[in-house]
Design goal:
Rossmann fold; six-stranded parallel β-sheet; 21 helices; 548 residues
Length: 548
């Protein structure tokens, strides 16, 4: 006989879980007891949003569900930010939430929440485990749902009395993975689709990728002479040095690539959803009048055709399709079209100079030239991230961990998760001053568990993206976008980490090498010129253009 907490942790171990992220709560004490002597590392975080984002990042890095445990009520609401990231990013994740005792329901008991109603629009599946002896069944299903079709988050609520009850329920072995298969007919149809196009464009993204799939994408694009673009924050899906790579279709992307998207007569979409970030708010590709043929490969059959009409839909994982396409005979001659797209990408790498003694384009350029190819780069949301997306060249799969949902505060928890997952790699978090302050309390989590990410904070004293939009729409009327910062270097040292301030760009390489040598979590604050607002325009230029 085992209590429910032990049955639960044994079920997680049976599914290969080695690490979970949590903020403890009295609502799941039996689960905390189950982790004792379980062999599973419980990374105790400082806030549930950070725990959920660490779990989501782990799902991105491993392809297996990241696991988070949070308490009921405010713990669950805090964690919802990470669930939203997992949903929009198609990341496998399981969130376990403590719940009131079963006999106390519907009395508005302490921290009572209906989790099916709360998480229903965000998660793939939400359930509450009513019986202790059904825990293995629910856990098995949670892993299956989180990873099948289009991956995503699952939420399981755990009534505290259910967890403390005992049962002789046996463990369940994990459900076998589905056998992948792509038919000859599907491959022939895709090649025929491409062969009839004069200016095709490949767009890659979505879930389920691997290092092998990234190599297959490059092989396919190079052999066929096709230009290959990636969707928002999926730049590590192909070696950016490949002759077929044309850049990323995302926020702050190359205008010439979006023009090429409009000019293309055929799109082969591999794994990605076709959303607003990929299409500049649906302006470069109008769902009502796309003006081109579309072939869409996606593991969820409902996705192709859900927003954009498709001429060819293939319900399959993009990596499985690419394994076949990488070996396929040449379908057409698009060499000049590919070369022009590549030239546009290389031209986009030429830095546009920003004002001040510290220039983000130079910092990111130095990182691109200096870091090992397996370094992991994370970020949250803000104008600073555009510099990373534009100037950093990703060479290997699994080196970009960023939210396609555009969630602020994500980069630092993700960097902690990446450092714990890959302690042998260099992990760098790019963050803005507003973005970093949302989750910097997790510095103590990093120190406690030995994570060693290096955080590069771009401090311009404002919520830069919102200020950019404000200046464009209400020039000179500054309201609600200023952001006071602490002394980040001193704060990092207070947590037991390394801290440095860079006020001259020439000092950044030495500061970075010192941070790397410190062997602990490190923060390098870049003090930017207040005129620096975007990668292409100063604050004054944005305001002047709006006034005109």
């Amino acid at each position: 006989m085992r209590h429910g907490g032990k049955i639960l942790t044994d079920a997680l171990a049976a599914h290969g879980v080695e690490r979970v992220f949590s903020v403890p709560g009295e609502s799941f004490l039996a689960a905390l007891d189950g982790f004792y002597e379980s062999g599973i590392t419980n990374v105790v975080c400082r806030q549930e949003g950070g725990a959920a984002m660490m779990a989501e990042a782990t799902g991105k890095l491993t392809g297996r569900p990241g696991i988070a445990f949070v308490t009921r009520g405010p713990g669950a609401t805090n964690a919802s930010a990470g669930v939203h990231v997992a949903r929009q990013d198609s990341t496998p994740m399981i969130l376990f939430v403590g719940q009131i005792a079963r006999g106390h329901r519907d009395r508005e008991a302490f921290q009572e929440v209906d989790y099916r109603a709360m998480f229903g629009p965000l998660a793939k599946w939400v359930a509450e485990i009513e019986q202790t002896d059904r825990i293995p069944e629910y856990v098995n299903r949670a892993f299956h749902v989180a990873m099948s079709g289009r991956p995503g988050p699952v939420v399981l609520a755990l009534p505290e009395d259910m967890l403390s009850d005992v049962s002789d329920a046996p463990d369940l072995a994990p459900t076998a993975a589905a056998v992948a298969g792509v038919s000859d007919g599907q491959v022939s149809a895709l090649l025929g689709f491409l062969g009839s196009a004069e200016k095709p464009l490949v767009v890659a993204g979505g879930p389920g990728w691997s290092a092998e799939a990234a190599r297959d994408l490059a092989t396919f694009g190079e052999a066929q002479g096709l230009p290959v673009a990636v969707s928002f924050r999926r730049q590590d899906y192909i070696d950016n040095g490949s002759s077929c790579y044309a850049g990323d279709l995302g926020v702050g992307g190359n205008p010439k690539l979006f023009a090429r998207l409009r000019e293309a007569d055929a799109l082969l979409v591999l794994g990605s959803r076709i959303g607003d970030c990929v299409t500049q708010g649906y302006e470069s590709l109008d769902p009502a009048m796309p003006g081109k043929r579309i072939a869409h490969v996606h593991p969820e059959p409902e996705t192709p055709g859900s927003v954009y009409r498709c001429d060819l839909a293939v319900a399959a994982r993009a990596p499985d399709v690419l394994a076949r396409l990488a070996q396929a005979p040449k379908a057409g001659d698009w060499g000049a079209w590919q070369a022009a797209a590549r030239a546009d990408y290389e031209g986009w790498l030429d830095p546009a100079e920003t004002p001040g003694a510290v220039k983000l384009e130079q910092v990111v350029g130095w990182l691109a030239e200096t870091l090992p190819e397996d370094s992991v780069l994370t970020n949250g949301a803000g104008n600073y991230a555009v510099f990373l997306q534009r100037y950093y060249r990703f060479r290997r799969y699994g080196t970009q961990v960023a939210p396609t949902s555009g969630s602020m505060g994500y980069g630092f928890p993700a960097a902690i998760a990446a450092s714990l997952q890959h302690p042998e790699r260099v992990v760098v978090c790019m963050a803005g001053d507003g973005c970093f302050q949302m989750t910097l309390n997790e510095m103590s989590t990093a120190v406690q568990f030995g994570a060693t990410p290096i955080v590069v904070v771009a401090n311009n004293g404002r919520y830069g993206t919102i200020r950019m939009h404000q200046e464009r729409n209400y020039p000179g009327r500054v309201s609600g976008t200023e952001c006071l910062s602490p002394d980040y270097a001193a704060l990092a040292r207070a947590y037991g980490g390394f801290g440095a301030v860079v006020e001259d760009g020439a000092d950044f390489p030495a500061a970075f090498e010192a941070a790397r040598a410190s062997g602990t979590v490190a923060v390098i604050e870049l003090r930017l010129d207040p005129e620096m607002l975007t990668a292409t325009q100063t604050l004054s230029e944005v305001r002047a253009a709006a006034v005109k």
